[in-house]
């Protein structure tokens, strides 16, 4: 007690507390590597020294070893490539984690036999379960396999279990009769912003629920527990570190998932730089922002490496054959010569403008789901409105899934400081790009205009959007496909809008530094340079020395987050 009031002792105590370790000795030195730094001043190095969670030296092996002390660990990289850690800045880690831990999953490529086998096994494993959730089917599935009633197809083997299966976009559900019964959906059910698809002959629901029509099902499924969410978050952070990921942005969560990240942060287990978008809280029955609820969520969940000053807004659906994204021009008609439409905005532009202005003034960064070129335009208009009203707040408002952007809107991203969120990682031919082409025709030729946006000075970022669309957070197939615009698994022939390809150097920057900037951690993370957070990954191959087609197979041997080993193979 006496010591704490003694100025000299206090100074000594402070000096000791501030010293990283020993006499500035490194905690860890990595030698003999091929270290790609993304630091313009020194693009490549051989070695790094790390102390107190930061890089204290970047350069040659000989000079790095000068930082060695009696307790320093030295690791020889034996010529392997190292680089800054990966950022996945459009992802749903808790949702994905709960799917991995609790759901009945099959790949979007699965045929009827495989789906029936998978689901039958899940039913047999837990015949008393009230619900089985799972997925992922593609919207072409029922057409391709001539399944007239998706509902009856499931009823054949589901017994008394209610089944709800997500599609590959996460926007739609395929359910059986029991699920419709428990959710209280029948042929007369009308859900604003969604469609209960009806059987043309009987007028009864055929088992497909589009967009908001799936919400009654969500309400009927028992809530998951906080303990389940925490397990899911823990599992996802562990998996992310294993893929070399050191930065994540949760793309939209009601608050339960965010609380799980907060719980992990409090126990020191949130081993990533993290931001989380909270689903916009509205005063029930109105389009008014619930300012108090938002303030409470921000206050309760913030932590040192968890930034919760973000909000998610859904402005539209998907431009696949569900035809729910808001497009500038009409979709291809479902039957040749038949009627068509251009999708729907889920929020009136005036309300969006007001939210943007209000949230921007509150210091909240907005992430707007804009899968169609009309929703992109309306979102850019709203950001422009906020900038006019508030001045430039510097907040990096983000447009999610900017797969389709009108040519005249491309320069607006740089002008407005709006972020083009290139997600999900499907910028290559796939079942999904087929479904999109069926709905929008030749406009698919300009899918995912990464090159155009970069050349126009836009801040582009990338994310997996897991668990929507792709099976995991593995960034390496997405990185390869940014360069090749071809299926990284070689399953689908051809390329998708190959003139939108970027170089490998650009792809690496999109997956690292661009993400760090979005999270606002760039001044102290995102590159390998002295004074930066020691986030680094060691790869099993040199990306610049293998054929580009081998980049997707990259595995990460070591992941450091803030100097701590969080994954090791
Ligand atoms: Zn998403």
Structural features, described:
Helix content is 33%, strand content 21%. It has 20 helices and 24 strands. The longest helix has 18 residues, at 373-390. The model is unreliable at 1-22 (pLDDT under 50). It is an alpha/beta fold and 569 residues long. It is globular. The protein has three domains: 2-79, Urease, subunit C, domain 1 (Roll); 94-220, Diaminopimelate Epimerase, Chain A, domain 1 (Roll); 226-561, Alpha-Beta Barrel (TIM Barrel). The strands form four sheets. Strands 8-15-16-17-18-19-20-21 form an eight-stranded parallel sheet. The chain binds zinc ion. The site of zinc ion has 5 residues, from loops.
SSE blueprint:
Layout: H1 2-5, H2 7-18, E1 28-31, E2 34-36, E3 44-45, E4 47-51, E5 54-59, H3 61-65, E6 73-76, E7 81-84, E8 86-91, H4 93-102, E9 104-105, H5 112-125, E10 131-137, H6 141-144, H7 150-158, E11 162-167, E12 172-175, H8 177-183, E13 194-198, E14 205-211, H9 215-220, H10 226-242, E15 245-253, H11 256-266, E16 273-279, H12 291-301, E17 306-314, H13 349-361, E18 365-369, H14 373-390, E19 398-400, H15 410-416, E20 419-422, H16 431-440, H17 450-455, E21 459-462, H18 475-484, H19 504-511, H20 513-518, E22 536-539, E23 556-561, E24 564-568
Parallel strand pairs: 1-6, 2-7, 8-15, 9-10, 10-11, 15-16, 16-17, 17-18, 18-19, 19-20, 20-21
Antiparallel strand pairs: 1-4, 2-3, 4-5, 7-22, 11-12, 12-14, 13-14, 22-23, 23-24
Helix pairs in contact: 4-10, 10-11, 13-14, 18-19
């Amino acid at each position: 007690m006496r010591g704490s009031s003694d100025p000299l002792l206090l100074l000594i105590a402070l000096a000791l507390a501030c010293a990283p370790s020993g006499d500035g000795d490194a905690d860890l030195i990595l030698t003999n590597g091929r270290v790609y730094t993304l630091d313009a001043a020194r693009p490549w190095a051989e070695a790094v020294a790390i102390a107190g969670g930061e890089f204290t030296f970047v350069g040659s092996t000989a000079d790095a070893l000068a930082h060695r002390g009696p307790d320093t660990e030295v690791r020889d990289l034996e010529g392997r490539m190292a680089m800054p850690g990966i950022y996945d800045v459009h992802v749903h880690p808790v949702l994905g984690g709960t799917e991995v831990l609790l759901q009945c999953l099959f790949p979007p490529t699965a045929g009827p036999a495989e789906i029936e086998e998978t689901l039958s096994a899940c039913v047999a494993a837990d015949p008393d379960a009230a619900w089985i959730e799972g997925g992922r089917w593609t919207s072409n599935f029922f057409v391709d396999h001539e399944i007239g009633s998706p509902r009856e197809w499931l009823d054949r083997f589901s017994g008394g279990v209610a089944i709800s299966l997500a599609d590959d976009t996460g926007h739609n559900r395929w359910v059986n009769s029991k699920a419709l019964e428990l959710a209280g959906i029948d042929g007369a059910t009308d859900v604003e912003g969604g469609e209960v698809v009806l059987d043309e002959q009987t007028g009864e629901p055929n088992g497909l629920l589009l967009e908001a029509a799936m919400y009654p099902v969500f309400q009927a499924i028992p809530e998951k527990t906080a303990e389940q969410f925490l397990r899911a978050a823990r599992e996802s952070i562990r998996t992310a570190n294993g893929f070399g990921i050191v930065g994540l942005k949760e793309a939209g969560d009601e608050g339960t998932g965010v609380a799980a990240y907060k719980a992990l942060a409090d126990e020191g287990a949130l081993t990533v730089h993290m931001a989380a978008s909270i689903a916009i809280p509205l005063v029930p029955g109105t389009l008014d922002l619930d300012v108090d609820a938002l303030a409470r969520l921000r206050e309760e969940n913030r932590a040192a490496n968890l930034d919760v000053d973000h909000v998610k807004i859904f402005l539209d659906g998907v431009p696949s054959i569900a035809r729910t994204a808001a497009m500038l021009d009409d979709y291809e008609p479902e039957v040749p010569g038949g009627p068509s439409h251009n999708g729907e905005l889920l929020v009136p532009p005036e309300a969006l403008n007001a939210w943007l202005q209000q949230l921007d003034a509150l210091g909240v960064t907005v992430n707007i789901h804009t899968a169609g070129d009309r929703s992109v335009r309306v979102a850019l208009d709203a950001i422009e409105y906020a900038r006019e009203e508030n001045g430039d707040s510097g907040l990096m408002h983000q447009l999610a899934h900017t797969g389709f952007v009108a040519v005249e809107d491309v320069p607006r991203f740089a002008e407005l400081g709006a972020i083009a969120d290139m997600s999900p990682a499907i910028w290559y031919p796939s079942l999904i790009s087929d479904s999109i082409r069926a709905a929008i025709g030749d406009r698919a030729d300009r899918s995912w205009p990464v090159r155009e946006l970069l050349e126009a000075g836009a801040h582009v970022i990338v994310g997996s959007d897991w668990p929507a669309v792709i099976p995991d957070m593995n960034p390496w197939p997405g990185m390869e496909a940014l360069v090749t615009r071809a299926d990284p698994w070689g399953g689908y022939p051809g390329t998708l809008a190959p003139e939108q390809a970027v170089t490998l150097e650009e792809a690496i920057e999109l997956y690292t530094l661009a993400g760090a900037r979005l999270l606002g951690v760039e001044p102290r993370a995102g590159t390998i340079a002295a004074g930066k957070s020691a986030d680094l990954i060691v790869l099993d191959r040199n990306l610049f020395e293998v054929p580009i087609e081998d980049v997707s197979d990259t595995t990460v041997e070591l992941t450091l987050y803030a100097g701590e080993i969080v994954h090791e193979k």
